[in-house]
Amino acid sequence: GSCAETGLLECGKQIHAISLKAFLNSDVYVGSGLITLYSKSGKIDIARSIFSRLPEVDIVCWNSIIAGSSLNSLERESFDLFNIMRGSNMLPTQFSYATMLNCCAKQSLSSQGRQIHAQIVKEGFMHDMFVGSALIDMYCKCGNVEGGREHFDAMPMKNIVIWNEMINGYAQNGFGTEAVHLYGCMMIEGEKPDEITLTA
């Protein structure tokens, strides 16, 4: 919640203490918020402890602990948790897949990225903007700019995040001419650049 976003760990600790006294520590909504709070504050051990003590976990709790592990550079743990989640018949959401693609991008794990991509196709999240931008980012960070462009072209709708990912992907891989050309295409399409576009 707002405590996590503003980095107010002390505020979060107080809410945690109140929730324990009010027996809300088993509430999945409170639990997922606390997992996110402690993960963003670098206290992944506390986040893990909260997750493991929840009597029932929903997809939001799973997404929180998977994303929290990735945020703390524990990509292998994110993969393990993702597989455990799938094994427990919990269906991943677009946020689950985007987090896993981000893990692949950070570690340049192209083969795992392609496996996640195949699952995304099977689950029908191919045209989701959140997943789409993560797919483009993953392929480009793994050095497969063509794969990123292929997915970019397949997106039926493109927001500024999608355009930025592809322009940035070209720029980071040394394709300056293509980045400039795509920027021009974006302008023709009527999409206004933002500060991220201009730094790419």
From TrEMBL:
PPR repeat spans: 159-193
Xref: InterPro entries: PPR_At4g14850-like_plant, PPR_rpt, TPR-like_helical_dom_sf
Biological process according to GO: RNA modification
One GO MF term attached to the UniProt entry: RNA binding
A Pfam family matched in the record: PPR
Keywords: Repeat
Name of protein: Uncharacterized protein
